[in-house]
Write a sequence for this structure.
């Protein structure tokens, strides 16, 4: 019986380990299927770069004026103005991020981008809502 | 979530209390599966782009008592149909597997992070925590678990889950021995 249980325990550990690894393909390697997808990819690469170089101005330029931004473990929703105020401290406190392979749904002037983000030991799914204005994509909101 | 280890500890304690040593290996395996299965929704989160706040997201429908009832029904219908459907014994198994599966979401509601639990799903996808959340939330990834954070989580579970489970197991044993002793003296 012990052998049987051990076999199943090992199998469970292997399956759990595999499944918990999740998506690992980086955003940079993602091949967009349209011009709009390419534009969205560029915005997200800029966001990743802005976070990793702690360039709050760069991030600010990607966010729409009417944006609502989710922050922290308590998932508080902030306006752009509120978020920009705390952004430099957040960038200084948090480690770099790596964005993964996205899944995009585009309709006219809006888009939803689901993307895996790794930050230190954290790996989770972020959903970005984007808005097209004056031929430029902006981040309207994000949730996790 | 508490770790899969903590949910299994709860399952082992419950199984020990329920079985009085006469249950098969199948019963023990089903107990552990029931207590851990709700976390299978992490597959959707990690691989299928299902955000945790959606209906089938992590800590959503699969963590609800409603799902616990469905799973329990499925288990007793498949594995315990020989006990006679709706018989007293059948209900006993149904309730046992229901409580065990539902314990997963309830324990998660005592953790201090992540999304709340959709305890009233499918009626509402609203997420809930208990007002008191002493258990450290476990990282979803193995990498996260094998860090300092993992150790903190295990220590927290030791205090809030493992030790209480051990005490319950001891109490059950004492109660059983007390029940056996008078008859064994005759």
């Amino acid at each position: 019986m012990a052998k049987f249980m051990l076999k199943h325990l090992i199998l469970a550990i292997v399956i759990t380990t595999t499944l918990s690894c999740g998506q690992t393909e980086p955003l940079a390697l993602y091949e967009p299927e349209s011009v709009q997808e390419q534009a969205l990819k560029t915005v997200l690469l800029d966001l990743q770069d802005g976070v990793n170089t702690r360039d709050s101005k760069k991030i600010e330029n990607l966010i729409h004026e009417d944006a609502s931004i989710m922050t922290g473990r308590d998932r508080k929703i902030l306006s752009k103005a509120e978020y920009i105020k705390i952004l430099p401290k957040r960038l200084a406190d948090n480690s770099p991020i790596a964005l993964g392979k996205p899944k995009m749904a585009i309709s006219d002037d809006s888009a939803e981008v689901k993307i895996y983000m790794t930050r230190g030991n954290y790996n989770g799914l972020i959903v970005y809502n984007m808005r097209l204005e004056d031929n430029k994509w902006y981040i309207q909101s994000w949730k996790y | 979530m508490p770790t899969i280890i903590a949910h299994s500890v709860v399952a082992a304690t419950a199984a020990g209390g329920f079985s009085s040593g006469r249950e098969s290996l199948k019963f023990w395996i089903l107990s552990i599966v029931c207590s851990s299965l709700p976390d299978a929704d992490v597959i959707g989160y990690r691989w299928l782009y299902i955000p945790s706040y959606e209906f089938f997201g992590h800590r959503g429908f699969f963590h609800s008592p409603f799902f616990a009832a469905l799973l329990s029904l499925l288990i007793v219908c498949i594995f315990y149909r020989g006990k006679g459907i709706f018989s007293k014994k059948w209900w006993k198994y149904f309730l046992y597997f229901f409580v065990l599966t539902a314990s997963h979401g309830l324990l998660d509601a005592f953790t201090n992070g992540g999304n709340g639990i959709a305890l009233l799903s499918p009626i509402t996808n609203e997420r809930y925590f208990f007002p008191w959340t002493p258990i450290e939330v476990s990282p979803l990834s193995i990498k996260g678990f094998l860090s300092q954070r993992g150790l903190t989580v295990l220590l927290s579970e030791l205090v809030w889950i493992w030790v209480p489970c051990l005490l319950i197991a001891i109490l059950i044993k004492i109660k059983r021995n007390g029940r056996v002793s008078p008859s064994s003296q005759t």
Helices of chain A lie at 2-21, 35-52, 56-60, 80-93. The first helix of chain A runs from residue 2 to 21. Chain A touches chain B through 24 residues (CB under 8 Å).
